[in-house]
Amino acid sequence: MLDQQRIDTLRSEPVAARKLFIDGQWQSGSGGVLEVLSPIDGSVLTTIERASADDMTRAIASARTAFDDGRWSRLAPAGRKKVLHRLADLIEREALALSVLGVRDNGTEINMAFKAESGSAAGTFRYYAEAIDKVYGEIAPTDENILALVHKEPVGVVGAIVPWNFPLMIGAWKIAPALAAGNSIVLKPAETASLSLLRLAELASEAGLPDGVFNVVTGKGSVVGEALALSMDVDVLAFTGSGATGRRLLEYAARSNLKRCYLELGGKSPNIVFADAPDLDRAAGVSASGIFRNSGQVCVAGSRLLVQREIHDDFVAALAKRAEAFRVGDPLDLGSDIGAVNSLAQLEGDLAFVATAEKEGAERVTGGNRILEDTGGYYMQPTVLTGVGPRDTVAQEEVFGPVLAVIPFDSEDEAIAIANDSNFGLAGAVWTSDLSRAHRMVRRVKTGVIHVNTYGGADATVPLGGVKQSGNGHDKSLHALDKYFDLKTAWIQL
Ligand code: NAD
């Protein structure tokens, strides 16, 4: 159980200005600072370094030196395992402090942040700590006068660029397998969610990770993110963020050293409810959480609700009731179900999507407004829009806010056609009591993840990744380790 008093104590602590974490030291950057505005009330929380391209080059050099001298890359997997377990212990020790710091920075409701940020990050470090001394190469079935070995080798320097919605969770999805595999890392957090990741780097040092193996460089994506992606000395880029940035990263890779790019991008995930869903009331509740938690700023959010026509009106009414019952407010108040939108720019973008949808003929069933403006924070009502056409802007583009587009359908084939009529293919769900239909839908809906009679469950054991323009390469599970290994064949004449 989270304790409100403890949260209030932590939230009142001043947050010192943060530096860059390079070569195991806090270092000043050469590009000035960025103010960190708290989405809770719009106040200046602290500053982070607005690093320059030169600062980024320094961090990459530190990661390269650490990799090449083998201080981590040549440590036995069992040794890396110990350090990663210690890091998981430290994350657990600091779980609430890390979560509160993150919430002050990015606005996620604390109940969710505690589980999805610190809780998930600790679990991810443990998962890869446990995995790494059980994953090894192969002996190929060749002629008996040949010994052919397939080695798994760390790739070298990994550049990780992450977004603001779940910085610790998504950061850990990249950092943990990359470190477990023996690589060095340069991490570029989002401008509006750097603080908990800077603290994570400090904890990694305390856990015994050698200097230079994990560096964090804050600042503008267009400056330091670009410098990281253009570097000739970075071997792999692991990215989560928007499609627009993902496209740039591929260009940067092409213009530099053809580094491998793993992109986890956006979604417009279809949540498909058939009239024979086992429990429509539960489906309405879970669907509401599946779009509105963290103010809809969830990559797999079920932002397109496809409802069979015969239950459309009743289901929308039940879901709207749930949406209206959510308490939106201070994300550090345990009474809030939904916290703040990450930034003013994001909030304005969300409101603009609602206005466009209405212009294109959608009707607002509930929500659609900014609220609690007097707090100075960025809060928006959960919003349900009906009368949305499958090709309308709000049905095609990712809002990444608390906005649900509802589209009716008649048949299973029509539901599949609408679901797949999207450039995205990240996640989705189907609600039905018909086992055969559930399996047909699992096969035919083109997404990387599909839920049946639930929305949003997952753990470290299963991959998360998209198809189509939702990206390539998966985070989580043993499969994610492949991204951070090179294969080397040794063909030995006996
Ligand atoms: P974004 O692309 O604007 O920013 C992501 C990161 O890229 C930030 O750290 C940013 O500073 C950096 N960046 C920006 N411009 C850059 C450039 N020119 N070169 C290098 N780096 C640059 O995305 P965002 O707004 O922070 O995040 C929201 C997006 O992330 C949404 O589209 C969401 O769906 C997606 N997302 C996907 C997943 C997934 O697992 N597929 C998970 C969470 C979020």
TrEMBL record:
Q: Return the similarity comment.
A: Belongs to the aldehyde dehydrogenase family.
Q: Quote the PROSITE patterns the UniProt record gives.
A: ALDEHYDE_DEHYDR_CYS, ALDEHYDE_DEHYDR_GLU
Q: What is this protein called?
A: Aldehyde dehydrogenase
Q: Where is the active site?
A: E264
Q: Which residues form the Aldehyde dehydrogenase domain?
A: 26-489
Q: Report the domain of life of the source organism.
A: Bacteria
Keywords in alphabetical order: Oxidoreductase
One matching Pfam family: Aldedh
CDD domains hit by this protein: ALDH_GABALDH-PuuC
Q: Record's Gene3D superfamilies?
A: Aldehyde Dehydrogenase, Chain A, domain 1, Aldehyde Dehydrogenase, Chain A, domain 2
Coiled coil region boundaries: none
InterPro entries, sorted: Ald_DH/histidinol_DH (IPR016161), Ald_DH_C (IPR016163), Ald_DH_CS_CYS (IPR016160), Ald_DH_CS_GLU (IPR029510), Ald_DH_N (IPR016162), Aldehyde_DH_dom (IPR015590)
